[in-house]
Amino acid sequence: MAYDADVIVIGAGLAGLAATAELVDAGRSVILLDQEPEQSLGGQAHWSFGGLFFVDSPEQRRLRVKDSRDLALQDWLGTAGFDRDEDYWPRRWAEAYVDFAAGEKRSWLRGQGVRFFPVVGWAERGGYDAQGHGNSVPRFHITWGTGPGIVAPFERRVRAGAERGLVTFRFRHRVTGLSRSAGGVDTVSGEVLAPSGSARGAASSRKVTGSFELRAQAVIVSSGGIGGNHDLVRAQWPERLGSPPQKLLSGVPAHVDGAMLKVTGDAGGHLINGDRMWHYTEGIENWNPIWSRHGIRILPGPSSLWLDADGNRLPVPLFPGFDTLGTLEHIMRTGHGHTWFVLNQRIIGKEFTLSGSEQNPDLTGKSVRGVIDRARSEVPGPVKAFMDRGADFVVEKDLASLVRGMNALTDKPLIDEAALRRTLVARDREIANPFTKDLQVTAIRGARSFLGDRLIRAAAPHRILDPKAGPLVAVRLNILTRKSLGGLETDLSSRVLTEGGDPLPGVYAAGEAAGFGGGGVHGYRSLEGTFLGGCLFSGRAAGRAAAKAVG
């Protein structure tokens, strides 16, 4: 049997690049396929904020954060809530990933030139009991260079492999079938799409100009999730989260369509946990969109007052940055698909970070001067652009005008000015009360006990209605699609399993297509900073295992 390469990797995102890099290191020949043009190499990782989950890192220790492998595993398991028979491999992957994050992950990346911002973020704080959801300590490490800084070393390794003749790129190749010509899956077939000059992330032509068929001893599926396919998101939307909202923003381009999951399933791969998904509740429409329905996520500090569509405060502990899916579940029960942040300029200037490499030019460009300028500015430039141009932002000097602006953004007026004023006055009164019963005020004070939050993420407690802190700001928040938490079931060697639990011969999966490991390493919820790392860990495992199998 003549093969075109030792291994075919389907999907040139971060997981695919990590797998290919490992195959190159082992001297294996690879064909790397992707339906998008070359300018989209790196996939969704390019657009990311570059957050990575580490345990007991030097950055944490310098900030006096005490962390451990056992504490991190407690947090992971309490967050994941594994409760299904098919969670056997996801749980094994979770344990292995926490070991990786507490062990060689940081040194492995540093060995490839990756560096990290010195201030650690505290994402998904939970707010329940010690064994429940959330990070007990800050663990969100921002890559110096954001998403592109993570992609760069793996792209460099893969391109070096191409120069050695080990890697062949086949862009604009859309896979439609996996089949066997011998004992295992060794044939990849599909359609060749018309060349496209579309910018990264922008829609590319779907005109078919030909077909292809390629053979290899092994196939690695690293094609991503379903976040750009709203029909599939709605079809798999879990009943526990209520009915899906009528309006969804997209945190990923349309080509993140989940089509390869069905192709692999049709070939015998077992898909599990399709109803587990990770969508954000703080989405805003991008005033300068790159793809259709392009949304940006606000990474908020703890001080914004979070209201439902009718103006009621969200219940404890659904504060900004505490429990993404708990908040989503509550919102879907209200009968509306949007909520509001109400705050002021002092808070937005200190606490709003926008997710995405393009929204953080200082960090992405590795500019120390840019970071200093951001810290000194009243409102960072990217955030100010949304205040001035964003369709979801209302900025006014007084509360009456703010409420009129908020009501102008909904089909009918829902916010009562008098009721909102009472809520704000009551909240503001608690700022001067050292014995406050307002748990959000307590949370703000708790956040500022961490040096990282006090420096760059949590404004000093003050009255929202303080004229000196104005103007007032209201932000309409939408549901933003992002990640699939389920996918192809895999063992710890990233081998795709069949429904009966046996390996599907010749097929491996990595990244979001594999639920970031095992078919759902996160369970029901994520601790954040674990998606890029999941792509790297599972991609590395797939590449190493496939290299041994074809050796």
From TrEMBL:
InterPro entries, per database record: FAD-dep_OxRdtase_2_FAD-bd, FAD/NAD-bd_sf, KsdD_DH, Succ_DH/fumarate_Rdtase_cat_sf
Transmembrane regions listed in the UniProt entry: none
Keywords: Flavoprotein, Oxidoreductase
Entry's Gene Ontology molecular function annotations: steroid dehydrogenase activity, acting on the CH-CH group of donors
The UniProt record lists the keyword Flavoprotein: yes
Keyword Oxidoreductase in record: yes
Ranges where the FAD-dependent oxidoreductase 2 FAD-binding domain occurs: 6-532
Pfam family, one: FAD_binding_2
PANTHER family: 3-KETOSTEROID-DELTA-1-DEHYDROGENASE, KSDD-LIKE STEROID DEHYDROGENASE RV0785
Name of the featured protein: FAD-binding dehydrogenase
Organism, scientific name: Streptomyces tsukubensis
